[in-house]
Amino acid sequence: MPSPSAVVEQGRIVLADAAAGQAGVADGIGVAAARMLAPAITLIARNLPRESAALHILACWAGGLTPKISLTPDTLLLEIGSCLRLFGGVGKIVSTARAGIAAQGFALALAVAPTPRGAQWLAQSGSSAICLDADSMRRQLETLPLAVLPDKAASTLARFGARTLADVRRLPSAALGRRIGAASLQVLAQAFGELADPRAEFIFPEQFSLSLPLPAAVETAAALLFAARRLTSALSGWLIVRQAGVREMTLCLQHRREETRLVLQFAELTAAGERFERVLRERLENLPLRAPVEAIRLEASRVDALAGRSRALFNDAAGEQEAIAALLERLCARLGEKQIYRLAVHDDHRPEYATQCIPLFAKAVPSEARALPRPLWLLAKPQSLAESAGRPQRRGPLRLLAGPERIEAGWWDGGEMRGEMSAEKGGEAVGDIRRDYFIALSNDACWLWIYRECREPGGWYLHGFFS
């Protein structure tokens, strides 16, 4: 938005930016007066639906700070008393809120007070007060102008010469109630903590699907990251409240006549907004757009409960695992999901075919666990062993500990490779086999998996090492 600028409602300024304020433009003055004070000012009509949508997004994001949230038409109220120990005090939770809202591109007027209306009035006045007890809150509230009260009550009190809430508080309550009404008197008492002020809590949606209209059509995908950050931050807060994580989400880019769906997948359940943003950045930076984007929508799919975990006393193994998962997600986003593979068990009795490579996010088919021991390290190609008097040799004679285990058949493959990954990695076709496998111990205390070829020309072979 160009500067100086201001938001207009019913011919009057309701919000001016810093540059307009320096020129003398204040809330409440007319449009004509604002143009006289700042001829280059940009006036923007107030858009209540967009304000409501922005508050809804911020409410979901604030779930990362507290689950107790209330909304007014222009204020986000967070109950943080029960979360102070988690964050380490008011100062840290306030700085976290400031940084999170600034990262989403919003300006912030913030205050802390023991009552919701007191905090609301202090924030709207721009005082940025941090009141930790009722006495300090009362002192701060008494300095506020009458403008925080309902319009009719404020104008009535101004005619009596009152200028601040301190002046109002000195008036007899009975006479004050007759002049400004019981409702205005009740609001005043709630702000000072003399009456209860119950608020309806924000209800987090059961399914996460938030849309964000863009102020102007965007023609490059990379430019969408800033706007998408608001939605990913909201998703992170929504997941934290639900104590859940997501394995997959979809960013929908809405063009004038069509929609582009961008599916983002994660190696494990996560609710971390920074991981969402990293993967999204990798995908958007090289994404060609078919048409300008006018709005975006974020949908969360594959949401599951996020299991709790215990932290290690010294080495944070769980943190290392998260770092590996985040690296794999970035590689998939940058190189393509078909370029990153993981190993999965394959239901085949032949050792060369007992595992297979599948894409990182593909679902592995469950296989029955084998009762017989198998080596951790299987050689890509069996290694021929020397033989003396019919006994296998490797740096001396081998001691056979277990076996034989007969593994044979596979004639149905006809000696062809199974799967494109095997061919890419230079493996060899196995097809029909007939072998007797043994567990052997070498002179240097290595546990080996060896076999005797039952077909001509026969011989002994080393196929793997036990850890």
The strand line-up of the biggest sheet is: 13-12-17-16-15-14
Number of domains: 4
Helix-strand category = alpha+beta
Number of helices: 15
**Quantity of strands, as a count:** 17
**Mean pLDDT over the residues:** 83
Backbone CA Rg: 34 Å
Fraction of residues in helices? 25-40%
Strand content: 25-35%
Biggest sheet architecture: 6 strands, antiparallel
Q: N- to C-terminal separation?
A: 63 Å
* Morphology: elongated
Residue runs with pLDDT of under 50 for 5 or more positions? 416-428
Explain how this protein is built.
The protein is an alpha+beta fold and 467 residues long. It folds into four domains: 5-46, no CATH class; 65-191, no CATH class; 209-309 and 316-335, DNA polymerase, Y-family, little finger domain (Dna Ligase, domain 1); 374-465, no CATH class. 32% of the residues lie in helices and 27% in strands. The chain contains 15 helices and 17 strands. Mean pLDDT is 83; it is low at 416-428.
Put the structure in a nutshell:
With 467 residues, the protein is an alpha+beta fold. It is built from 15 helices and 17 strands.
Which SSEs are present, and which pair or pack?
Layout: E1 5-9, E2 12-16, H1 18-22, H2 31-37, E3 42-45, H3 48-61, E4 69-72, E5 75-78, H4 84-87, H5 90-103, H6 116-124, H7 134-142, H8 151-159, H9 165-169, H10 173-180, H11 182-191, E6 209-218, H12 225-242, E7 244-254, E8 259-270, H13 273-285, E9 293-305, H14 317-335, E10 341-345, E11 355-359, E12 377-388, E13 391-393, E14 399-409, H15 420-424, E15 433-441, E16 447-453, E17 460-465
Parallel strand pairs: 1-3
Antiparallel strand pairs: 1-2, 4-5, 6-9, 7-8, 7-9, 10-11, 12-13, 12-17, 14-15, 15-16, 16-17
